Amino acid sequence: MNSDSSHLLENTKVVVFGGTGSLGQKLVQRILAGECGIPKKLVIISRDEAKQYQMKIDLEHQNQASTQDIIYKKGLSPVEFVIGDIRDYTSVQNVLNGADYVFSTAALKQVPTCEYFPFEAVKTNCIGMQNIISAVKQGSYPVKMVLGISTDKACKPVNVMGMTKALQERMLVQANLDNSKGTRFGAVRYGNVVASRGSVVPLFAEQISRGGPVTVTTETMTRFLLTLDQAVDTIFASVRSGTPGDIYVPIIPSARIIDVARAIIDDNDIQIKVTGIRPGEKEHEIMISEEESYRTIKRDGYYVILPMLPELQPPSIETALKGGVEYSSSVVTMEKGDILKMLRDNKLLPAKTEAAMKVLK
Q1: Is 115 exposed, middle or buried (0-12, 13-18, 19+ CB in 10 A)?
Q2: pTM of the model as a whole
Q3: What is the mean pLDDT of residues 328-350?
Q4: Residues with catalytic roles
Q5: Do residues 230 and 252 lie in contact, with contact meaning Cβ atoms separated by under 8 Å?
Q6: What whole-number distance in Å separates Cα of residue 162 and Cα of residue 231?
Q7: Rg of the chain over all Cα atoms, to the nearest angstrom
Q8: Could you tell me how far CA 132 lies from the centroid of its own chain?
């Protein structure tokens, strides 16, 4: 990080939609660490009061503050928790007043849930993002950047979750047109975040603690794997170096899900049960499609998908991928031993799994 980028968030107002989720909490933690400068105000908006209450308690404990408004080290002004909904324009408009940087980690992201409630996914993932875009463009304060968090499922989408995220990406790209305020709109796209709520690692941990079986959808299903810190690294890379309409993609390993299960089970006598693909699931995930490869470059150790709209493209593009070659999880780069090492090195193997493994041995 250069000296200029290390102070991008210094003395700014930062708003994090969905800040009480797994990624949102890690993002907040890293922002408070001052990696890009210390903001004067950090607003966490979500509609889950229970998670907000617990997050506030945790942050107060970590920083040894006893007041209701949390005071952090290095002179950071109070963090503000706001109950609100990205689907509600008034909520969005109110919280963006005076904002400099906006991160949207709010999403409906469970694939089967989105299949059964598709319009609910549209309301959060699409209408919610449009609320942010409209509020930024119509507000009286110039926002420096809006960043949406996308997913590999947005690439060649076959499920509702991916379709809504693909639309969200295109909305963020288009928002850079007719943009008199100079706000930079962009996105990051990545795969499964290891050990986040709803991911396979906590699921496998729970199943192992009960003595099994551990359930996998197919023996050949693959996924990209990255840690929460790698996810936030990608966000910060986009903040530092992104241009309007960029989609940042981390270069990360991929693995068979059954190998993830085997790594967590280790040599314990736990059965693996194949259950079949759930509604809307893919066998393999794609991070960059063949079409996108023609406008994908490499920047600061990341793939960057340049916008499709010609008005936002540079005069020439030196692609980082061979034209017509997709970036797919089907090219497996991690086996059982590599996966277990990744989990242990990053302290991502759940405590209950470690405990269960010791008992079972």
Answers
A1: middle
A2: 0.89
A3: 88
A4: 153
A5: yes
A6: 18
A7: 21
A8: 17
